[in-house]
Amino acid sequence: MNKPILKSGPVVIGAADFFARSQARLGFDVPPGLYDPNIIPASGDPGTDKMLEIVAREQPVRPAAVLIAVVDRPEPTILLTQRSAHLNDHAGQIAFPGGKIDATDASPLDAALREAEEEVGLSRDFVEPIGYLDLYGTAFGFRILPTVAKVRPGFELAINHSEVDDAFEVPLSFLMNPVNHQVHSKEFRGMERFYYAMPFAERYIWGATAGMLRVLYERIYSS
């Protein structure tokens, strides 16, 4: 999962093939590491794995859920947001609709759907959940469980500007092409760790969002 360097060629992206592969490879079993600090989500990068071990010892686990909304257009796209500039965490960054899992949420799926409604006004009526992707850990203690979903076109968004400045779509073919998966590194307490970036036009997609997109590519196409 999320290996920093993996030589692989471009893939041909078709909506029917993507959804068929996703339905065959994903399910709705909730990984115990979402809540258990003793289970460290594996990243495939030794530096990141060590960072997540340290974070788990020093910070409480913060379970979260996001929606990887794949819009079923003739050329399929993924819906992303740009977080509001005034937020305390990850201000201005590109993200999936999502957030922390509340005690009132019936499941991580329910949390992802609720957050998508609250942030961008995406109605559940247009969303067909497919399954959970692998658990993703961050340096801030978040344990993120992404839900991959097929979204029917025709929805209208209503941006909640207290949380999100913008919502936009990026072609699935761009995001699932490993040629566009740049590998960068940074230091964490003397250790080098790797992360992905996928710049698209004026949008700089990086960090956890790019990491989860890379995981999506590896789960759906590289095996």
Description:
It is a single chain. The longest helix has 15 residues. The N terminus is likely disordered. The N and C termini lie close together (11 Å). With 223 residues, the chain is of the alpha+beta class. Strands 1, 2, 3, 4, 5, 6, 7 and 8 form an 8-stranded mixed sheet that branches. A two-stranded antiparallel ribbon has the order 9-10. The protein is globular. The protein has 5 helices and 10 strands. Its cofactor is Mg(2+); Mn(2+).
Tally of separate helices: 5
Q: Give helix % range.
A: 25-40%
Terminal residue distance:
11 Å
Structural class: alpha+beta
The fraction of residues assigned to DSSP E strands is 25-35%
What is the overall silhouette? globular
Number of strands: 10
Outline the low-pLDDT stretches: 1-8
Q: What about the largest sheet?
A: 8 strands, mixed
Order of helices and strands: HHEEEEHEEEEHEEH
Overall pLDDT level: 89
Q: What's the alpha carbon Rg, rounded to whole Å?
A: 16 Å
List strands and helices in order, with pairings.
Elements: H1 15-25, H2 46-58, E1 62-71, E2 77-83, E3 94-95, E4 98-100, H3 108-120, E5 127-132, E6 136-137, E7 142-151, E8 164-171, H4 172-175, E9 182-188, E10 191-197, H5 207-221
Parallel strand pairs: 1-7
Antiparallel strand pairs: 1-2, 1-4, 2-3, 2-8, 5-7, 6-7, 9-10
Pfam family, one: NUDIX
InterPro entries: CoAse (IPR045121), NUDIX_hydrolase-like_dom_sf (IPR015797), NUDIX_hydrolase_dom (IPR000086)
Keywords: Hydrolase, Magnesium, Manganese, Metal-binding
